[in-house]
Design brief:
The protein is mainly α. It contains four helices and no strands. The protein is 39% helix and 0% strand.
């Protein structure tokens, strides 16, 4: 049985006095609150909701999702990059579907080979 999924749906009514300002910033107010969180961190030492580890984990989900799709939907665990032992496993990972400035350097395919080809 699949685990339940929580979907965040921003409620502008919960934004308080700054709702209009937040909504103008983009992404349903998300961009505004990220900047506010970082500002409060730098000015007041308040820990932001998104730190570097959450940001990297969010990026890793996209990368691992692509790799999973190329491996027939293989389950892939998103590493906890706040733990050095998990970071070390990925430190030399340089797979990329993107060519360098010379059109070379692709180390990971951008399409799966068709089984009939």
């Amino acid at each position: 049985m699949a685990e339940p999924v929580t979907v965040y749906r921003p409620d502008p009514a919960s934004f308080g006095k700054r709702a209009e300002e937040a909504l103008k910033a983009g992404h349903g107010g998300g961009d505004f609150w990220i900047v506010e969180n970082m500002k409060n961190y730098f000015l007041h030492g308040e820990k932001p909701f998104f730190d570097v580890y959450k940001g990297v984990a969010m990026s890793a989900t996209a990368i691992l999702g692509l790799r999973s799709s190329f491996n027939h939907g293989e389950n892939m665990k998103v590493p906890d990059f706040s733990k050095e032992e998990e970071r070390v496993k990925w430190q030399d990972d340089d797979l990329t579907p993107f060519p360098d400035e010379n059109g070379e350097g692709i180390t990971y395919p951008c399409t799966m080979p068709h089984p009939e080809i």
